[in-house]
Amino acid sequence: MRGFILKYFDLIRVLLSISIGLTLAFIIMFLVSDNPLLSIRSLLIGPLASRSRLSFIFETATPLIFCGLAASIPFQAKQFWVGAEGALYFGGTLGTAFALLTRFPSGLHHFLLLAFVFIVGMFVGLIPALLKTRLKINEFVTSLMFNFILYYSGLYIINFHFRDQAAGYLVSNAIPKTVLLAQFIPRTRIHLGIIFALIAAFLVYIFLFHTKWGYEIRMVGANLSFAKYGGINVKRVILYSIVLGGALAAMGGMIEVMGIHGRFNWQASPGYGWNGIMAAIIAGNHPLLIIVTSLFISYLITGAQIVNLVTDIPAEMVTVIQAIIILLVTSQAFLEFWRHRLIVKEAAKDGSSS
Amino acid sequence: MNPILEVKDIVKVYPNGVVANRGVSLKVEPGTIHALVGENGAGKSTLMKIVFGLERPDEGEIYFKGKKVKIFDSHEAIKLGIGMVHQHLMLAPDLTVAENLFLGIEPRKGVFLDIKKTLKSAEDASKYYSLSVPSRLKIKDLPIGVQQRVEILKALVREVELLILDEPTSILTPQETEVLFETLKGLKKIGKTIVFISHKLKEVKAVADLVTVMRDGKVVATQMVENTTEKDMAYLMVGRDLSFEKVEQSLKVGESSLIVKDLSYMNLERRPVLNKINFELKKGEILGIAGIEGNGQTELAEIITGLRTSSYGEIIFKGDNILGHLPRKIREKGVAHIPEDRMKHGAALDISTQENLIVDRYQKKPFSNILFLNWKNINQYAKELIKSFSIATPNAHARVGSLSGGNIQRVVVARELSSSPELIIADQPTMGIDVSATDTVHRLLIEFRNKGAAILLISADLEEVLKLSTRILVIYSGEIVGEFVNTPDLNGKDLGPYMLGIKKKEVM
After folding, report:
1. Which of A43, B203, B308, B349 sits 20 to 30 Å CA-CA off B80?
2. Contact B174/B493 with Cβ under 8 angstroms?
3. What residues of A are in the B interface, CB distance below 8 Å?
């Protein structure tokens, strides 16, 4: 039993964190809601109650998976790059521009568009990466600040160059049919993007754990001095880990435009980048687990919106839950005393047996 | 007689999961010098830190003078009468000896310190314990051996009865060590009890009355020193016999392999760390660099292997000046590096053993092709290395951090020596590892020497340098101050004055 707990300690810790997060949320709901049971039911069961709600979980998970993957690659190299939100937004903007300005047959158009967005994302990642490797400027600060630069630049491009004058609010013109992604399940908006996301997760998994570059990234993350000592070009690794992060987040943004709205309609930054970072952290930066955690966060978001509609609890409730979970998952000391006791007991047993 | 100190069933697990003590019990008789020996990582320092209140035991009891005590910090330990001198001295370098001695318990005159009385008390104490210290001088101006004496006196003026010394000789030259031993014997005469932590058995034999041997967090035996030999103690420490003799010299010293010319290096604070170093290393030769830690040895190793940049001079290996080349390029020329700090450079603790073993060769066949790693081959290879270097690990997937210090070093050595190197930079290759791992490392270095590799052995452990080297250079304050051919009768006392910078030979 003790051995079992020690072996799966990290998993148990995450599950416990989630339970505690939910429990605290329930307590708050009991305190503030007039009808707490309805709120809790809406939060937990609501998202599963209809086809459109289930669909919403998968739709929302699609960009989350991309952003989670985008965060996981630099995180594996212990580079705290948080530029997924900006890259997603800017990828969506420039991708929309590309889609509106070019004419190709469907298929080829998809491919060229996504390739273009991928490159855009790479450049978005390249700036903080270069600042880090050349001038030792902290990537956290630059990538965080770049989110704002990219957001306002994107807003400017759409507003002044590609705005749909006929629409009553700020959206771009509809992108051509040749770049739309098919919504393949009847009476839902689940589109091919989810398939792309799953493929991307698998590819990132292969990349991180089965290629030479993934090995380099993980070694830099595990011990930078060791990687350098072993002959790994640490600066190059930092550079491409962040560049790939930017590319994946940008793809996620454009795929959302191509699959759901058919036009660029984010007046505000949608927040997928931040939720993606959370998905990556809860998953311990493992690409395949990011699929699971993205679906989970997406489920919480869906639940929150239902709660918001049918009860007196605001949707922000879910951010409280998320915050508690992240806090517990990332706090090194949480449950550490328990693990410590277990090891002490094992040691005492070992000492008395000899 | 009743023991002055008794510990019972102490268990200590560090937060990172390392188990340091697994149920340790020990009795120390008053008025004796009690040696606590064991390989590094055996748990002896941890045990004494618990007694001194620096670490809390997870389980177990401590009795001092027959009374059960709970010691939560070092103040309490001192109040009880327990003092400790650490391996790394804890003195204020900018204060005088007298001020250090009475730090926190200064004689006062109103709100002011009574400097005259402080000085007087310092001199009285110095006389009383016959420990001569220059009470007016600042600590930073004193040699290490004298600083250590101040540290001992500092404990004594606090009227401790039990004094713990944690590897006191690791920072001393042979001459200073002798003086220390005289001091300890003197203290015993006036009734103090001393616990002396060491892994050097010769010293135990020279100074201690009783010896307790620890291995792997447990007490193996406690014996009278006069009834035991170094060999017996070593046997208890590792479970088999070990040799202490100098190895026979290599017969085929060949042409030159590495030439270092006028190598100078300044650190970030613009302090010169290396000053015009010159030497030549030949194939089939072990060149020992002796010196007290922190005299530029590690920097020298890191510059040769490309980890440290912006130095001046030339490093010629295989006809090329490799100074400033990237680490990978230097490695690919046939240079292996056993780094001083295996936790920092030598291994990634959170990563599996097999991934640690391929960090310098993952990009080559058969470990990977143009894109992918070949895990099957990597695992196979790791298994072979684990077997041939007898690394004690449950399997190739086990986290390196879960292994003992000696086995982590075996992982490092296995990787470095399996790349068929022509030049091996061994920086403190056996520091802090157990005796059997030390033995393995020594055997391998000799094996490679005999195969014609050139080996630069940097070590603060004089015994090691004397045991293995063909020639010995002494480094002091970033300069080579002496060169010796390692004849059978060369011993530590010949090198001591050079290591202290007292003597300097105009070599080269």
Report:
1. B203
2. yes
3. 210-212, 214-215, 218-219, 222-223, 225-233, 336, 339-340, 343-344, 346-348, 350-352, 354
